[in-house]
Amino acid sequence: MLLEVNEISVFYDVAQVLWDVSFEVNEGEIIAIVGSNGAGKTTTLKTIIGLLRPASGSIKFLDQRIDNLPTMRLAEMGLVLVPEGRGLFPYMTVLKNLLLGAYNRRAWNQRKKTLGQVFHLFPVLEERRDQLAGTLSGGEQQMLAIARALMSMPRLLMLDEPSLGLAPKLVLKIFEIIKEFNKLGITVLVVEQNIYQVLTIANRGYIMETGRITLEGSGQDLLDNETVKKAYLGV
Description:
CATH superfamily of the largest domain: P-loop containing nucleotide triphosphate hydrolases
Number of domains: 2
Shape: globular
Distance between the termini: 35 Å
CATH topology of the largest domain: Rossmann fold
Order of helices and strands: EEEHEEHEHHHHHEHEHEEHH
Number of helices: 11
Number of strands: 10
Helix content: 40-55%
CATH architecture of the largest domain: 3-Layer(aba) Sandwich
Largest sheet: 6 strands, mixed
């Protein structure tokens, strides 16, 4: 098991936002956590990556307890988050943003090879390598954010709402790209409100409602579930 989240509860000050959340991610999977806005999905990712601390429960990555480790240490272990909002450096070039992703020693030593893989997945970024990141379109910026994370050679790549604000054609492109780098051996945990698209590519999924996991199953089983159809797919 690559990641094990075991009954974590999380608070913002005195307000509880997660209740005994548990799930697991196995090597090579695409796992989706889906639900409506405010369900606790982003909070879950922030807790895994160390930006928040659970009040109870535990998180293990590569069989090591990580819920007390700093975010930088987690990144060095191969646990990487692409946050909602992308977090790019707008006044730096595409290439410099990408190279910043290869900050750990292992990734830096392999940066030329990884950069070639990234440009193969995202040819538009190679075309715009000398362009300022802030001048890219919204879809191109999302691609750059994902590509920068790939430069760190992650074992587990976590994506927070990668399709948010994108045109429908770009949404399809982003999910196709996720499938492509999963084929390269990168395990993916993705949080999404676009339930149909993400469950179509996911091996397994978890439905989150008001800070709790309420349903789990294969991506196809969740798409076929009558409760999911009525609550989220409008069927």
